[in-house]
Amino acid sequence: MSKRLVILGAGESGVGAAILGKKEGYEVFVSDRGLIELKYKQVLIQEEIEWEAEKHTEDKILNADLVMKSPGIPEDAPLVLKLKENGIKVISEIEFASKYTHASLIGITGSNGKTTVTSWIYHVLKNGDLDAIMAGNIGDSFAKNVALKNPDYYVLELSSFQLDGIETFNPHIAVLTNITPDHLDRYHHNFEEYIASKFRIVKNQTNKDYFIYDADNKTICNWLKKNKISSIQLPMSLKEHEGEGAYLKDDKIYIKVNNTEFIMHKDKIALKGEHNTKNAMAATTVAQLLKIRKQTIRESLESFQGVEHRLERVLKINNVQYINDSKATNINATYYALDSVQPETVWIVGGVDKGNVYEELLPLVNEKVKAIICLGVDNEKIINSFSNCVETIVETKSMEEAVKMAYHLAEKGNTVLLSPACASFDLFKNYEDRGRQFKEYVRQL
Q1: Taking a C-beta distance cutoff of 8 angstroms, is the pair 181, 355 a contact?
Q2: What is the DSSP pairing of strand 369-375 with strand 345-349?
Q3: Residue 239: exposed, middle, or buried by beta-carbon count in 10 A (0-12, 13-18, 19+)?
Q4: What are the φ and ψ backbone dihedral angles of 405, each rounded to 5 degrees?
Q5: How far is it, in rounded angstroms, from Cα 291 to Cα 285?
Q6: From CA 216, how far away is CA 264, in angstroms rounded?
Q7: What positions does the entry give for ATP binding (predicted)?
Q8: Does 413 carry a binding-site annotation?
């Protein structure tokens, strides 16, 4: 008899897992407590997979042999707890899909920079003519790709939520870009729980695998002092260090792995800023491990264009630069954004607060920001945090209103920066929707 696979959540990862489950001979049932997007509904109908929307019928779920839950459903959701009480294994799509591929896995996680690093690694691999697919938290789901394709390499962007549901998942190369407080609402406001979640990426690594990490991040270094891991450690730092890994010296990046050395001036790297120097180090270290030609790596560092919604320059209007950084959903990401702009910036901020401590931004806001436009349902925390150092703080209820207000407040030579430091779910579908609306209304000015 075929085993019963129940999938909770019919989004990208859920429908991808359903396709793979059916291919691997499972009896598949998909259940979503909300509405299912039309494009996903059509796939389920076409694949003849049983599904339900706007409810979870427990009789059809509690008889599962295996449950795959979408990353959006918390580990302590009542239905998930009930499944575990009944001894039913609940895993993530990443765990499920990894069992059915022989490809070499490169996993990237971190509070910030993971989309940029994932895209940059993929860019270098493609330029090096390696057969690679980018998936995970970006593009088509990992499971859907495993069902339909058979590449040599997967470059996977992994959120902490995806890592929470792994048991045996093991990337040959793991990258941890940084750890700063984020998603604390999901982790019982316990930073230690969130840190442990990120470090699950190395949980199953062996002494034949590699771990690339930010050695300037105190949180990462403190964890590594207290916990032993099996993989080969390759630290990245803006300060020179002994041994293998990456560092910056005299404005040049040095990458040393497996007795080979790569050197390049940081000014040649396409994306600017200290955080992008680190992102470039991560991509280069992976490329060196995979023995990609140095010339190809150089060209890939010079030609990479960055990702949408991450410090994306939209337009210059009346000598005012409009920048879309909608992907900045936490304080640390917004810190990078404010650090990269000129003084006299009009800053659009706000949304669903995930436990933010805005005080960390005070020095930069003091130096760079001339006006704040709040874009959220509840802006009280933002107003209280910055009313002493920014004279002009206005509240808006839509992106159109926020962009028009920014246009009135900005003068020649100013920057208008959308860098919300918050999740988007109060007024938008997701951060992409927020960023696209921003660009759309800027183009209408």
Answers
A1: yes
A2: parallel
A3: exposed
A4: -65, -40
A5: 10
A6: 20
A7: 110-116
A8: no
For residue 145, CA distances in Å to 160, 167, 378 come to: 21, 20, 39
In the chain, domain spans? 4-91, 96-303, 312-443
Length of the chain equals: 445
Q: Which of 73, 71, 94, 88 is nearest to 17 (CA)?
A: 94
Name the CATH superfamily, with its identifier, for domain 312-443.
Answer: Mur ligase, C-terminal domain (3.90.190.20)
**Amino acid in the structure at residue 257:** V
**pLDDT digits 0-9 by tens, 1-21:** 789 999 999 999 999 999 999
329 is in an annotated binding site: no
Q: Is 87 annotated as a binding residue?
A: no
Tens digit of pLDDT for each residue in 272-283?
Answer: 888 899 999 999
Count of CB atoms situated within 10 Å of the CB of 149: 14
Q: What is the pLDDT, as a whole number, of residue 183?
A: 65
User: What is the residue-wise DSSP string for 50-85?
Assistant: EEE-S---HHHHTT-SEEEE-TTS-TT-HHHHHHHH
Question: Is 404 labelled a binding residue?
Answer: no
Could you tell me the CATH superfamily of domain 96-303? Mur-like, catalytic domain (3.40.1190.10)
Residue pair 331/354 in contact (Cβ under 8 Å)? The answer is no
Q: Is 110 known as a binding-site position?
A: yes
Closest CA relative to residue 19, chosen from 91, 100, 78, 104: 100
Please tell me whether 170 is known to bind a ligand.
Answer: no
Q: What is the bridge-based pairing of β-strands 50-52 and 369-375?
A: unpaired
Q: Does domain 4-91 have CATH number 3.30.420.60?
A: no
113 is in an annotated binding site: yes
Q: State the Cα–Cα distance between residues 175 and 193, nearest whole angstrom.
A: 19
Q: Which residues contact 227 (CB under 8 A, 6 or more apart)?
A: 199
Give the CA dihedral 313, 314, 317, 320, nearest 10 degrees: -30
* Amino acid in position 260: T
What's the rounded Cα separation, in Å, for the pair 257 and 273? Answer: 24
Select from 144, 104, 142, 132 the least CA-distant residue to 23: 144
> What b-and-e string marks burial along 2-32, b requiring 16 or more CB atoms within 10 Å of the CB?
eebbbbbbbbbbbbbbbbbbbebebbbbbbb
CA distance 133 to 194: 28
- 214, β-bridge pairs: 236
Bridge partners (DSSP) of residue 252 are 249, 265
Residue 273, pLDDT score: 80
Question: For residue 362, what are the CA distances in angstroms to 207, 274, 327, 386?
Answer: 43, 20, 21, 7
